[in-house]
Task: structure prediction
Amino acid sequence: MNTYRFRFNNSKKNSTILFCFFATLLTVSLTTITIVLLPHSHPLFPAWLLLISLPLMLMAIYRLFKVASGMQSTEIVSLSKEGFTSSCFGSVLFSEIHSIRVPVREIGLLGGTQLDYYKKTDTDFPNLEFSITTRDGKMLNWILNEWGGLYNSKEDFLIFFDFLKELTDQLYHASEPYNSYLKILDEKGSWERRD
Result:
C-alpha cells in the first residue's frame, strides 16, 4: 500500500471568499470616506463613525485572509489493491470510479505547456483541476499548480502526479486500448468506464 501526502486547493470556499472580498472592499471604502471626506465637509465630524468603520475594516481584512488560507488542504491518499482512501474525500473503490478528468494539455510533464512559455509571456500559471467521479455521482476535485503556487509546491504536484500515475495503472486492463496519456486517458484527458 502506497501513501501520498500533498497540499492542494480544495476550492470549497469560493463563495465565502467572494463574500469576504466584497465585504472587505465595502468596509475599506466606508472607512476611507469616513476618514478623508467627512472631516472636510462637516465641521462637527462624528468620530463614532470612525470608531465603527475602522474595526469593521480590520475584521473584514482578517476574515478574508483567514478564509483564503483555509482553501489549502493537506491530502493523504493511501492506495490498496481494491481502491484508495483519501483524508479529504473518504474511501473509493476502483470499481466505483466512473470517470476521470485530467487537464493533460496544460501539464508540462505530459508534453503540454512548458514552464518556459509562462516565463516568456505575461500569462499566469494555470491552476489545474483534476476530478474523479464515482458511480453514485460523488465528485472528488483537486486543484494544483504544476510549478508551485499559493496552495501547493512543485513537490506537492509531483507527489500528486505519482498518485495519479499509480491510480491510472490500477485502472488499466490489458483488454482496453493503450492511450497516450497515463495509459487510460485519451488526448483530451478523459477516461470513462465502459461497462
